[in-house]
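ok trying this again, last paste got cut off
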Amino acid sequence: MQFLLLIGLIVLGFTLGRLGWLQQRQVGWGNKYIIYIALPVVALAKIPTLEVDPDLSLFVVTPITLFIGSLVMFQLIFRRFLEPDQRLVLSLTSGLGNTSFVGFPLIIYYFGSDYLPYGALYDQTTFLLMASFGQAMIVKREGLDGFVHTLKKVLTFPVFVVIVIAFMIPADSFGEPVLMVFDWVIQSLTIVAMIIVGFLIAKYVTFPFPRLVWLGLGYKLILAPAIVFLVMKMISMSQDLEQVNVLETAMAPQTSICLMLLEHEKLPSLVSQILCWGVVLSLGVSFLWMML
């Protein structure tokens, strides 16, 4: 049911965008709601419930390793074949996944809400990579002033602050009414994000889409999850946790980093097509990975 809901929300956003009933300004409001309200609520609701377990390190190491792999592929291996902005876009969109907006609903769909804390840890790691290294790569820094400015933005970013708080508070800090409100906000996160994706499809997506889209999504949806899948088979851990790790790896590019790239006018058509087709294709590709 949630699988169909995701598709329906994308179609809704597409339709509203085509009719002109949804404009860029409203999309900007939606993005701010996601970053400043919904994601902090996810951190407060899910991180305190994480149990201390050595397996948890995998949900931190995996996104970091795959982000580094993306940098190696697009900044070094394909350096001679890509322009600077193309390298920037492909590195960030392929290295950072949509592990909350799409990942959380799919975790619930395949495994149940009890596994959301693992997805939350993976997602918060990905988000920190976006807020720190991703932001630093987009904004041209000059000397110490640029470094201090970037560091300050990371340390004062609402989600980062809430993550730190969430790791320090007990699991039973919130009563049932508060948790119910948290759940409503988390559900709204998916609704807003998928409508935004539909709007971007209406505004930017064209056929046929460029070779660079295939290149970026090839790493994001096929190569990266294949590497994680093979590594998971070599180590001893719960099959469910193994699949959650692979599922989160096989998600579409991260919406937040894509919106940040769009704000800085970095190849908007390429960014939008990678994001939109990534979401659409990841719904089917993730199903195939879960069947293995």
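PB: full thing came through this time. The chain is about 75% helix and 0% strand.
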